[in-house]
Design goal:
Blueprint lengths: L2 H20 L4 E7 L2 E7 L9 E5 L6 E5 L4 E6 L2 E7 L4 E10 L6 E5 L4 E6 L2 E7 L4 E10 L17 H25 L1
Antiparallel strand pairs: 1-2, 2-3, 4-5, 5-6, 6-7, 8-9, 9-10, 10-11
């Protein structure tokens, strides 16, 4: 493979890395309304698709958080933290009760990378260690909320995969090598 073809390949890896970091992708928004789990595509400023009902919920959910990496939907219903497999369009497998909640949560968001579940209960933003199946560690209160929150969503900036960073580094090294070679041949 020629050095120029290799650099083109590595440059395309850099552009993919840049697009991931720039947040160019459209995001699916999952929400609960009228007793159903629904979704809509969102580009960061506006909805860009129709509103689709994916599943009927029984019992109704009061909070939820989707872990797309694990294909798990975590939700609160009937005073318990529960989970179900979810592929982005439909439920998969069984509905599992994971933990009984006291006090009940009104909002939640799961950070799977940090293994922390953030939630709102008794007028405070709190967190607890969570490994995807059970609580681990201590329950911490971070902030007192006034007025109390009824919904929240934490946004975690995507961290590029190591292979993307390696491709970026190789691309930059290839560009530098090509530039040196061109300068040497010109002299």
């Amino acid at each position: 493979m020629s050095l120029i073809r290799l650099n083109k390949l590595l440059l395309s890896g850099f552009l993919l890395f840049y697009a991931q970091c720039a947040g160019a992708a459209i995001t699916s928004v999952y929400y609960v309304a009228d007793g159903g789990l629904r979704s809509v595509a969102f580009d960061g400023t506006q909805f860009v698709s129709t509103f689709d009902q994916l599943e009927v919920l029984s019992p109704n959910w009061t909070a939820m958080s989707y872990d797309s990496a694990a294909d798990r939907m975590y939700y609160v219903a009937d005073g318990a933290l529960r989970s179900v497999g979810f592929d982005g369009t439909q439920f998969l497998g069984t509905f599992d009760q994971l933990e009984v909640l006291s006090p009940n949560w009104t909002a939640m968001s799961y950070d799977s990378a940090a293994a922390l579940m953030y939630y709102v209960a008794d007028g405070g933003l709190r967190s607890v260690g969570f490994d995807g199946t059970q609580f681990v560690g201590t329950f911490d209160q971070w902030e007192v909320l006034s007025p109390n929150w009824t919904a929240m969503s934490l946004v975690f900036d995507p961290i590029p995969e190591p292979t993307t960073i390696v491709l970026l580094g190789l691309g930059l090294a290839g560009v530098a090598t090509l530039r040196r070679r061109i300068n040497r041949d010109a002299a």
